[in-house]
């Protein structure tokens, strides 16, 4: 495990994934015809240009696949972090405290901002052309009890993607065990463990009302990636350049033909190789675009943007439905979705940069300082 290596392509990948999640949410706001959706729809049936382009944007904006990639990336990063951690009580306490300090401040900002928004003038509404997905959100009373339930992740009703942050925090407590196992195992035994965790995700870990543990195998797959460094570093650029575009089709489309859990397995396997090539594929140039300034910038603010964009999109959409009830939602849903995406990303990017600068960066500095004090006491 490389202790001090910074995988810049993975930073760019995070930026790309945060934009994919934003695209996913933006194209779910307005009610669309069934044939314009991607879930359980035959992509080869043509109903019209608008519906086909809507499907294409939803296909490219597969937020579920992006979350799968985020989970594998987290597994890789957690493994790197633990490789620099003393595996004793102080070391593990330092590891967990650092994780909480790094992750919580931006989330608390989202929760506090949402609570203020809901307490001052917000009245839950549905609209004639708002989708069931849009209508599901914010349909609760922001009491002090509800605020606490969301702060401690007992509920995850705020922010669209906050449930994934709960998964990451829960896995962070379990991950040291994974790390110790991974240090002792060979690559083939790791593959067997991964298959076992996949099997458990559909059986023992399939707990009604609590799906968080179903994603454990994704984090373990991310942890495994460095053991296959030689494989990734020897890969031919020509071969990867041919296979990668073909692999994107099941990566982005399989869950739409099955369900999110079966799709998650296929996405995880493809993501394993995608991340491996991005991190260790020295001969692979197909992913060099991730080192570009555009994706590096969004990679820098990806965590803040990932959490903030939904709230910006929700408020924008609500203003649109209230102020512009006569827009041609039924006939021009594609262009309206596209406009929502562009405007919400522009606004959310500005807000996210400020949050990154004044909340996220200071929390990283604080986490490092506190972590050192705990581990050295």
Number of helical runs? 15
Number of domains: 1
Q: How would you state the average pLDDT, rounded?
A: 95
Compressed to H and E, one letter per element, the order equals HHHHHHHHHHHHHHH
Distance, first to last CA: 27 Å
Q: Please estimate the helix content.
A: over 70%
- Main structural class: mainly alpha
Walk me through the structure.
- With 377 residues, the protein is mainly alpha-helical.
- It has one domain (8-376).
- Helices cover 70% and strands 0% of the residues.
- The chain is built from 15 helices and no strands.
- Helix 4 (89-119) runs antiparallel to helix 7 and helix 4 packs parallel to helix 14 (302-323).
- The two termini are 27 Å apart.
- The model has no long low-confidence stretch (mean pLDDT 95).
């Amino acid at each position: 495990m490389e202790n001090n290596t910074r995988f810049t392509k993975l930073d760019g990948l995070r930026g790309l994934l945060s934009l994919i999640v934003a695209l996913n949410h933006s194209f779910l706001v307005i009610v669309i015809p069934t044939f314009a959706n991607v879930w359980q729809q035959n992509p080869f049936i043509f109903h019209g240009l608008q519906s086909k382009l809507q499907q294409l944007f939803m296909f490219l904006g597969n937020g579920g696949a992006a979350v799968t990639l985020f989970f594998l990336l987290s597994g890789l990063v957690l493994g790197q972090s633990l490789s620099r951690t003393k595996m004793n009580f102080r070391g593990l306490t330092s590891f967990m405290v650092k994780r909480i300090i790094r992750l919580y401040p931006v989330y608390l900002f989202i929760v506090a901002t949402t609570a203020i928004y809901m307490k001052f003038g917000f009245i839950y509404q549905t609209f004639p052309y708002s989708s069931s997905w849009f209508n599901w959100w914010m349909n609760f009373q922001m009491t002090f009890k509800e605020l606490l339930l969301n702060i401690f992740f007992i509920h995850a009703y705020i922010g669209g993607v906050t449930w994934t942050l709960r998964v990451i925090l829960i896995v962070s407590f379990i991950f040291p065990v994974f790390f110790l196992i991974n240090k002792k195992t060979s690559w083939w035994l790791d593959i067997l463990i991964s298959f076992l965790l996949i099997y458990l995700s559909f059986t023992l870990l399939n707990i009604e009302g609590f799906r968080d543990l179903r994603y454990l195998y994704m984090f373990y797959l991310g942890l495994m990636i460095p053991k296959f460094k030689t494989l990734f570093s020897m890969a031919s650029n020509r071969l990867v350049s041919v296979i990668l575009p073909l692999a994107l089709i099941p990566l982005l489309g399989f869950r739409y033909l099955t369900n999110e859990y079966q799709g998650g397995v296929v996405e995880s396997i493809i993501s394993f190789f995608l991340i491996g090539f991005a991190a260790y594929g020295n001969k692979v140039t197909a992913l060099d675009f991730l080192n570009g300034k555009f994706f590096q910038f969004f990679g820098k603010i990806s965590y803040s943007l990932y959490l903030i964009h939904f709230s910006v999109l929700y408020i924008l959409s609500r203003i649109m439905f209230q102020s512009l009830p006569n827009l041609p939602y039924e006939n021009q849903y594609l262009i309206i979705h596209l406009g929502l995406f562009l405007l919400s990303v522009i606004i959310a990017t500005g807000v996210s940069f400020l949050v990154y600068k004044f909340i996220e960066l200071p929390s990283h500095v604080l986490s490092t300082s506190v972590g050192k004090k705990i581990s050295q006491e």
